[in-house]
Amino acid sequence: MTLNAQAPAPNAPSGALNIKALAPLMGAEIFDLDLSQPLDADLVADINDAFLAHHVLVFRDQSLPKDAQVAFSENFGELESHVHRLRSGEKRPALHVVNNLDENGMPTERPRTTGNYFWHTDKSYHAVPSLATLLYAVELPPSGGDTLFANTKRGYETLSAETKQQIADLRVEHSWEASRLNTGNTPATEAEKRDRPPVVHPLVRTHPNTGAKTLYVGMHTSHILDMPEDKSRALLDMLVDHTTKPELVYRHQWRMGDLVMWDNRCLLHRADKNYDMAAQRRLLHRTVIKGSLPF
Ligand code: SIN
After folding, report:
1. Which of 16, 97, 123, 199 has a CA that sits 20 to 30 A from residue 169's CA?
2. Known catalytic membership, residue 82
């Protein structure tokens, strides 16, 4: 480079992302982007295309203060606050922290909320659930603490014709209250239940952008409407087991600097307890983008 050569403008539109697929069913890593800088509309469109094609995007080597993560997330839609209230009773802000820490900031096997360790799709207990989640690694254990993603489009496609027919028109109640019970967490408070009454969604969901059919299940479900409780729970559990078989799962092994963005409309996800939760810190910043009414 000559002495007076200009450094390239950050995130100048290239027309092509530096992107590499991570696994056949989902996942791609993206390099050479600085997400703390404003993005050109063409670049946002490229990221959107990659997001629909790969479902999980891993942006490597980021350095993202909270407000920069919020600004980047807002390129893709309106952000959600979290239903779980702060101890003060106030609603949580748009960016919240996922961690395994106790009240004194020490690692623990029993953090206040462990819902992230169970298969779920974010905010399916909302009438209008989430489109995407963005998770940025701030503190990681030396190894483990992975996040797993399961492809619910492939899960639907690989069901037998008979099961597809059986579940075609079923409707499922999801609720924050059920979610807390299913995960053995402290029960939902009266204020939380008032804020988030149960909602009903189709069991087989159509992805609004791709038209693909997906299984809309996970730990926020309470029951299938008009079905005896034991049959309903057995069917919901069977579908989660089916769509989370190892061959339908991508395991994300975090690196510092990763920002991972995923599509909640065609994936389930959960964190893995494959680290020493009682001794090692795991802390990530999370933003969630509102989606649309499932159909
Ligand atoms: C989440 O459930 O949104 C967070 C997943 C994780 O902790 O890896």
Report:
1. 123
2. no
In the chain, which residue ranges form alpha helices assigned H by DSSP?
41-54, 66-73, 152-157, 161-167, 176-182, 190-195, 229-243
Catalytic residue among 46, 122, 146, 263: 122
Residue of minimum CA distance from atom 7 in ligand 1: 271
Calculate mean pLDDT across residues 107-124. Answer: 93
Read off the pLDDT of residues 248-260 as tens digits, 9 standing for 90 and up.
999 999 999 999 9
Active site residue 286: yes
Indicate whether 109 belongs to any domain.
yes
- In whole angstroms, what is the distance from residue 147 CA to residue 124 CA? 19
CATH number at residue 117: 3.60.130.10
| Ligand 1 nearest-atom number relative to CA 146 | 8
CA of 154 to the centre of ligand 1 (A): 21
If one counts the domains in the chain, the total is: 1
Say if 274 falls within a structural domain. Answer: yes
Q: What is the pTM of this model?
A: 0.91
Q: Is 154 one of the catalytic residues? A: no
Q: What is the pLDDT of residues 141-176, one digit of tens each?
A: 999 999 999 999 999 999 999 999 999 999 999 999
Domain that holds residue 71: 18-290
Which of 250, 269, 282, 285 to mutate to test ligand 1, by most ligand atoms within 8 A of the CB atom? 269
pLDDT over 80 (residue 91): no
Does position 4 have pLDDT exceeding 50, yes or no? no
Residues 6+ apart with CB under 8 A from 207: 153, 213, 214, 265, 266
